[in-house]
């Protein structure tokens, strides 16, 4: 049985608990949220998993695994100290690692704690193939992210185009993954994950489009190198609770927990 503490009780966290609440091999002992979210998360968790505690931190408890489904600040606040103290961790907010130095900080914390941090594939696939291809040498990785105009609300795209008036697919950004992450941090998880698995933030080319013709989050990747090449298109259905987040992200967290908890891992 795997004793898990989870940071975050939003679209992903709730989706994960819903899918795993009847699995006897995965037990959520604790959900961590900010002080301001305690009441709301408490009510949600009581309904889903009545035996799970809700708190603002680990406060001395030592889960088998700490999983982050919360955001950038949670990595600094909870994941780094947990790694330092030897608790294995998983991270879903991979976009946060596009901040200079944070990926190194995570790795060093895990080294000091003699443990491991796993970056989850989230909304994108083929991370296994890309990361294996890197061993032989990659020449090019190009990522195109296409989302409905509504998914670009509250981002710099609002200054580039009138999102409500768009009638055709429009490029709102073209450049490196590092620049994409700086401008669009909440939509940068896929770009950052592809970069970390592949050619890095400065050599991964990114194009972002607002497209009134799609209802899904469409992620397209083209990679080539010594291994040959691949092309991948993911059409991710967004979560009702957060249109910026694809449902596959929830499934990727559940898969990762299943792989840790069960005898067969795939
Ligand atoms: N890897 C990938 O492919 C993807 C990654 N993501 C990332 O996953 C993360 C979660 O997404 P989602 O569930 O949709 O987001 P939501 O906004 O729905 O939920 C976030 C949850 O985390 C909590 N939270 C925020 N900051 C902290 C903190 N410092 N400590 C503890 N809890 C905190 C929030 O609490 P409160 O509401 O009280 O503030 C809320 O419960 C985001 O960072 C997102 O960018 C999303 C999609 C794909
Ligand atoms: O599709 C998703 O779930 C989120 C996304 O594009 C990203 O953060 O890169």
From TrEMBL:
Pathway: Cofactor biosynthesis; NAD(+) biosynthesis; iminoaspartate from L-aspartate (dehydrogenase route): step 1/1. The active site is at residue 219. Residues 167-254 form the Aspartate dehydrogenase domain. The keyword NAD applies. Its EC number is 1.4.1.21. GO terms for biological process: NAD+ biosynthetic process. NAD(+) binds at residues 123, 189. Pfam families: Asp_DH_C, NAD_binding_3. It catalyses: L-aspartate + NAD(+) + H2O = oxaloacetate + NH4(+) + NADH + H(+); L-aspartate + NADP(+) + H2O = oxaloacetate + NH4(+) + NADPH + H(+). PANTHER family: ASPARTATE DEHYDROGENASE DOMAIN-CONTAINING PROTEIN, L-ASPARTATE DEHYDROGENASE-RELATED. This is L-aspartate dehydrogenase. The lineage of its organism: Bacteria, Pseudomonadati, Pseudomonadota, Betaproteobacteria, Burkholderiales.
């Amino acid at each position: 049985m795997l004793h898990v503490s989870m940071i975050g009780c939003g679209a992903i966290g709730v989706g994960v608990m819903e899918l795993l609440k009847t699995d006897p091999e995965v037990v959520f002992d604790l959900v961590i949220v900010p002080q301001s979210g305690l009441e709301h998360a408490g009510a949600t968790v009581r309904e889903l998993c009545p035996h799970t505690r809700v708190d603002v931190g680990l406060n001395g408890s030592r889960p088998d695994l700490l999983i982050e489904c919360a955001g950038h600040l949670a990595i600094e606040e909870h994941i780094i100290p947990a790694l330092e103290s030897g608790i294995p961790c998983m991270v879903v907010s991979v976009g946060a690692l596009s901040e200079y130095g944070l990926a190194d900080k995570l790795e060093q914390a895990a080294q000091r704690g003699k443990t491991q941090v796993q970056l989850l594939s989230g909304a994108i696939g083929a991370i296994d193939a890309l990361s294996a291809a890197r061993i032989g040498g990659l020449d090019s990785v190009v990522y195109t992210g296409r989302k409905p105009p509504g998914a670009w609300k509250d981002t710099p795209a609002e200054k580039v185009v009138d999102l409500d008036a768009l009638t055709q697919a429009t490029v709102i950004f073209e450049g490196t993954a590092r620049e994409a992450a700086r401008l669009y941090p909440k939509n940068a998880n896929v770009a950052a994950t592809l970069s970390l698995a592949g050619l890095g933030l400065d050599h991964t080319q990114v194009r972002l489009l607002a497209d009134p013709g799609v209802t899904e989050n469409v992620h397209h990747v083209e990679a080539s190198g010594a291994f040959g090449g691949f092309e991948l298109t993911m059409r991710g259905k967004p979560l009702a609770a957060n249109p910026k987040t694809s449902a596959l992200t929830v499934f990727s967290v559940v898969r990762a927990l299943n792989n840790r908890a069960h005898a067969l891992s795939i």
